[in-house]
## 1
Amino acid sequence: MSTAASTSPSPVVPHPPPADDGRAKADASRRKRKRRAKVTKRPLRERLRRDRTLLLLCVPGILYFVVFFYVPLAGNVIAFQDYQPYLGFKESPMVGWTNFQALVQEPEFWTAVKNTLEISAVQLLLYFPAPIALALFLNSLISSRSRRFLQTVVYLPHFLSWVVVVGMFQQIFGGAGTVTSYLNEHGVSVGNLMNNPDTFFLLITSQAIWKDAGWGAIIFLAAMASIDNSLYESSAIDGANWWRRIWHVTLPGIRPVIIMLLILRLGDILSVGFEQILLQRDNVGAEASEVLDTYVYFHGVVDGDWGMSTAAGLMKGVIGFALIYLANKAAHRLGEQGVYRR
C-alpha cells in the first residue's frame, strides 16, 4: 500500500504562458489586418473613377483657393524689389532687404503693430469666449422651439455687411444716437461714443461680438451635440447641478474644438478686421485706429509704396504662421490634438 501510494503520479501543474505570448498574438493579428487591407485596397484609378462625382464637387473650392490664395503668393517678390507697376515683376530692380530695413524704421509701422496687438488682446479676452458662452446658453434650453428661434435671431447679424453694422451703431451710440440722447436727457453725459479714441477698442470688439458671436457658436453647438447624453444623466444622478454638468461634462467634451479654434485665432492675431476699422478710421484718427491691414492699404494702394507695404504683409504672414506652429506644438505637449496630429 505504501509502495503504491509512493509511486502514484503527482498532479500536473500547468505552466504559465510566456509573458510575450499576448504581444505576439497582437502582432500576428495586426499583420493579418495589414495583409487583408492590402488585398482589399483598390487601385488609384478605380478609386478615382468611383469617387469622381465627389471630386468634381471639390473642384470649384480647390480652384478658389488656388487662384485667390496660392497664386498671389508669387507677388511677395515685390517685398524685395523697388516695384514699379509699369515695369512689372521682371523689370523692377531687386533691392534685397531694403524695404524691410525701411519698414522697421518707420514710426507709423510700430504704431500700427501696437494698435493691432492691443485690439487682438481685447478681442481674445472678450470676443473669443462669447460664442462659447452663447452656445452653452442655447444648449441649455429645454424648448426646441425657443432654441431654434434664438439661433435664427443670433445668426442673422453675420449676414449684414460692416457698412450696415457701423451705421446701426452710429444711430444708437453716435452724438445724436438713441442711447446717447436718452442718457443726456437723464443727466448722464457720455459724449459721442463713436468718436472717442479711448473706447475705440471696446467699441469694435462689441461690434464684432454682436455681429459674429451667433455664427461662431455653430461649431460649438455641433461639438456639444456629439457628447453622450448618458454622461449628463450620470452626473445628474450623482447630484451635479447645472453648473457642475457644464464644468465637468460639456466643457471637457468641447475642449479639443476650443483649443483648435484658439490656435487658429492666434495665427490670425495680426488681422483684426480691415473693413470694420477702415469705415471708422476717420472718426477717431489714425493714431488710435491704424492697424497693419490699414497700414498696408494706405501705404501700398493709396501712396504707391508697394515694396514696403508688401514687406509688412509678408512679415505679418510669417509671424502668423510661426504663432500657429508654436501654439500647435504647445498643444501637443499638453496632450491635446491641436490643428493636426503628430
## 2
Amino acid sequence: MRRYRKKPKIDHHNKPEMKFVKSLGKGTYGSVDLFSYTKHDDGSTFYNAVKISDSQHYNSIDREFRVLSKLRGCPGIVQSFGNSLLQETDSNGERVYKMVVEYAAGGNLTDFIRINRKLSETLVKDFTRMLLQGLVSVHEHGYVHCDLKPENLLLFPRHDQETRFCSYELKISDFGLTIKAGDESVCWETKSPFVGTPLYMSPESVRDGGAAVEKTLDLWSLGCVVLEMCIGKHPWSGSSVDEIKSRLLAGKAPEIPETVPCDARKFIEKCFARKGEERGSASELLLHPFLVGERKVDGAGGGGGERRRVGLRVRKPPSRFEDIAKQSLKLKIISSKSSQFKRVSKKPLKMKILPPRPLRSNFVPIQ
C-alpha cells in the first residue's frame, strides 16, 4: 500500500501583510507601484517594487522576468523575486501580469543628475564601474541590454549608522528589450527602426536594420551615459530624432566638451568608436586608465556598492624636522646692548623661551 506524503499546510497568518504605498511611474510597457510588506511575527516592514503590464505587453514583461531570473545574484543587476509572473485581474476585469523586484529608494540616475547637475569625477568613476560590472554579467550570459540610459539605472542608498555616511549602489534595470547577442531586434520591424532610445542609440542601431545585434551596441550607450554624468545634460541635447539619425549616419558622435577630463574623454571616445570591435568589451573597459586610477578597496570584483574607504598617507617630513619632537626647549639670551634696549640698559637680561617649531600638516588623502 503506497503512502502519500501530506502537503504542508500554508500558514497564511505568517504571510506578510501587503499594502499599496504609491505609484512610482509609468512607461511604455506598463507601470511600477511601491508596496510595503509587514511581518506579523515581529512587525518589521520592508518594501518592494511591483511592475505591472497588461496582456498587450505580456511578451515584454515575460522576457524581462526570464532574463532577470538568469541574472539573479549577479552584481550590478536589479534583483527579481518569485518563480513566475503573478497573474491577476484589474478593476476593469482585464488580466494583468506582475513582477516583484527590489525597491530602489534612491530613484534613477536621470533624477540624480537633474538634482545634482554635473557629478564629481570620483562619483562618475564609481557609477561607471558599477554599470560596467553589471554589463559584464549581462554580456557573460549572452545578452545585449539594448536600452541603456540613466532612466534605467537605479540607485540604492547604503547608510552607515556609525558615520551617518550615505553611499549609492547603481544597478541596471528594465530588460524589456533585451535579446540574445547575435539575434535580430524586433525594434527594426516598427516604423522607427531604432534599437533603444534615440538619445543613446549607436550608429549600427540606425544603419544595420535587419542585422544581428552585438554586445558592443551597449558600449556606445555606456559612453552616452558617462558623458551625461560629466556634463549634466543629455547627449545630442536640443536635437530631434531625425537630426540624431542623420548625424549618426554621417559618422558623427555626441560632442565632448573641453571641460571633460582627459581620461574620461578618452574613455568616452573609445565607447564612441565607429566600428563595434574597436570599443572592446565591458571587461576590457573596466581596466581603462579612466577607472583603474581610483579602484575601490571594497568590492572591486563584486557588486561595487560598498562605500569606498579613504586612507591617509603621511609624507616623510623634511630632514630638518625629523628629530624635532626630541629637541629640548631653546633658550635665547637677548643682550642689553641690543639697539632695542639702548634706553633701558640698566635693566637685567631678558630670557625668552622658544617652543619647538610646529610641523605643518602633511596628510594626503588616498582616493
## 3
Amino acid sequence: MTQLNYWSDTATNREPVETTLSHLGYDAGYVGIIKKIFRIAQTPVSKLSPQQYLMQDAFCQQTELLESDALTYTHTGQEVYPFGQSCLRSLNRSSRGNGALFGSTACNCASTFKVIDLYRRRQQSADNKASARKRHVIVTCDTGFTPILKDIPGSTVTGDARSAICLDDGAAGDYQLISYESQVYPAHFGGAWEDEEKHSVYEKTYKDRIVALIEQSLAGLALDAESRIAIVPHNVNVYTWKAIEKKLNNPQLSFFTDGVADHGHCYGSDAFINLQLLEQRYAEQDSAEQDCAEQHDAPHSPPHPIPDYFLCVTAGVGGFFSSVTLKRTDTNKDPSYD
C-alpha cells in the first residue's frame, strides 16, 4: 500500500484582503463580500516569484527528495510556464539529479492530485514486484506575484504556499493512500478564457459537481454507521463549502474550513495546509483532554472525533474535479505549521 508523507508551509507575511483587493481595483462592496460572506480575512504574501519562494531556504532539502526515483513539479499558473521549467531545473539540482523529472500544470489546482494518481497507476501496473517499488516526490508552489494570479473574481483571493509530497510503497508514512477519484468536464477546458455562456454553466453546476465527486469517493470506501470522514477542501471560500455541506446532508462528514480565513486559496497546497491544521487541532485536543484528566475536570468543549478517513477535494479551473482519500497511520506525529 502506498504511504504518503508531506511538508507544507506558507509565506510568513499576511496581507489583509482590503489591501490586496484595493490594489486590484475592487471597491468596498466587493471587499465586504469576500470578508463577510466568503470569510477570507487575509492571505500569505511573499512578493516573490515561484522559483524565488521555493528555493529561498532549505525547504527542498529533505532526505526523501534527495533519494527520490522520480521528481515532479506541479503548479497552477499556466501564464508563468517558464517559471515552472525553472523550478523543475532548480529542484533537479537540489536533488543532485538522482530521479526522473517531469512537470505538470495541465489540471491547474488539481495537477498535484493527478500526479498522485499517475504514481498509483504505475504501482498497480508493476504487478507488485518489489523491484518496481519507487519513491516519487511531488513539489508544488504557486505565488500571486502578478495581478492575474492574485484572485479568482467572484470566488476567492489567493495566497503564496509550497508543499512537498513523498509517495513510497516501501517505507513507513504518516498517511496511507486509499483512493483517487476524478470527474472531468471537457466543455470547460477553456478555463478562465471560456465564453460567458459556458462559464455561467460552470458556475451554476460547480457545487453539484463537487457533491457528485464526494459521493463517488465515499462509494469506494468500506464505511459503516460509525465511520467518520473529514472533508479537507481547497480553500476557495466558506460560503461555497457550507452550501455543499448542506446539499450532502451527511452527519458522518465534517467539513474543515478553518484554513480559509487566514490563507485564502493557496492553489495546489490547500489540502496539505489543511491537513497540518487538522493535525494541530487533534494534538491540542489530546493535550487538553490529558490536562483535564489529570485535574479530574470535565472537558471545556466537546471533542472533535478523529476521523477514519481524510477526503481531500479540489477543483482545477478548466473542469478538473478530483479527490484523494487518505487514512492516518501514525497517530503520534508531531504537527508542524508556520
## 4
Amino acid sequence: MNRLVIAIVALVIAGYVLLSSVFIVNEREQALVMRFGEITREIQEPGLYFKVPTDFVETVMYIDKRLLRYDLERIRLQVSGGQFYIVDAFITYRITDPTRFRQTVLGSLQLAEQRIATRLESALRAVYGLREFDAALSEQRSEMMREASDLVASDMTELGIQVADVRILVTDLTPEVSQQTYERMQAERNAEAALIRARGQEQAQILRAIADRQAVEIVSAANRDSEIIRGEGDAEQNRLFAEAYSQDQSFFEFYRSMEAYRTALMDGNTTMVLSPESLFFRYFGSGGELPEFQTPTATPIDIGVEGLTEEPIDSTQIDDLLATDSLVSGEGADDLETQVQDLESLIESENLGPEVLEGTEAPATPAPLTDETAPVETDTAPVEEQAVPAQ
C-alpha cells in the first residue's frame, strides 16, 4: 500500500515537472523567457519549447505580434491662423522588439497605448499647426498623414513598436468655425455673383450702345432720304403749280380760292369776321355766277396720268363739285380726297381746249349758280382773325 502511494505521488510530481517545463508559442504570439525577472530568451517563431520546470525559476511572457490599432477620437486641433478642427484619427502598429517592449512599458499593452495616444496627438498638433485652415480639406491631407506617421514612428521605436500607418478619419469644424466658414463662403459666392452681374451689365451696356448707335444711324439715314424725297416732291409740286398758273391764270386763281373756302369752312362751325371788300370774298360777290375763263392755248402739263378719255366730259359734274353750298357747309368732307381727285381730273380734261376730241362738240359752259347756292353764315362764335386768300 505504501509503495502504491509513493508511486502515485512520484507520477504526479513527474507530470507536474514535465508540464511546467513545456510551453507552446502559436503563430499570433511571441514569447520572452525570464529567469528570476531577467530575460534569457526571445522566441519569435511558433512551436513547442522547454524551460526550467516550475515557474519559480523561469517564467514565460507572451506578447502579441499581430497588427494592432489604436483610435484617437474627438481631439481639438488648432491650425495656423487660430482656428480649430475636431479630428478623429487612428494608428496601426505592431510590436517588433519584445525585449525593448518589456523593458520600457513592462510588456503592458495598456501602458503602451497611453504613450501612443500622447505621441500621436502631439504629432497631429505639430502637423496641423503648420497648415492653413483649408489645407486639411484639400489634397494636402495625404501629405499631412504621412508626416504624422513619420513623427510618431521615430518615438515608437524606443518602445519596440513599428508604426504601420496613421490615418485621419474625420476632420470637422467647431461650431464657431462652421458659422464663420458658412459666412465666408456666402460672402465669396455673393462677390462672384456680383462680378458676374457686373460683367453682364457691362455687356448689356455695350450692346445697348451699339444698338442705339445703329438706331441713330438708321433714323438719320431715313430722315435724310425722306428730306431728299420731300424736297424733290416740293420742287415738283412748285413746278407743276407754276406751269398750271401759266396755263390759265384766272382759272388758277379761282381754283385756289375754292380750295381756300373749303379749307376755312370745312367743319361748318367757323365764323369769320372780315371786311366785305376783302379779297377773300372776291368770288362771293359774283351773284352766284362763275367768272369767265379764257380758253387755254398752252400745251397741257404732263403729270404722269393716263391718256385722254374717248368719252366727252359732262360739264354738270364740275357744277356739282364747285357748288357753293357744299363748299360752305362742308358736306361730303369724308369723301374730300376723292372729290379733289375728280375735280383735278375734270379740270385737266377741260384745260385741254378744242383739241380734246376731234369731230366732237366742246363741253357746255358750266351752269350759273342759283340763289340757293348763296353763301351761308354760321351762328358760331366769331374768331378774331382775318383769312388771307391763297396765292
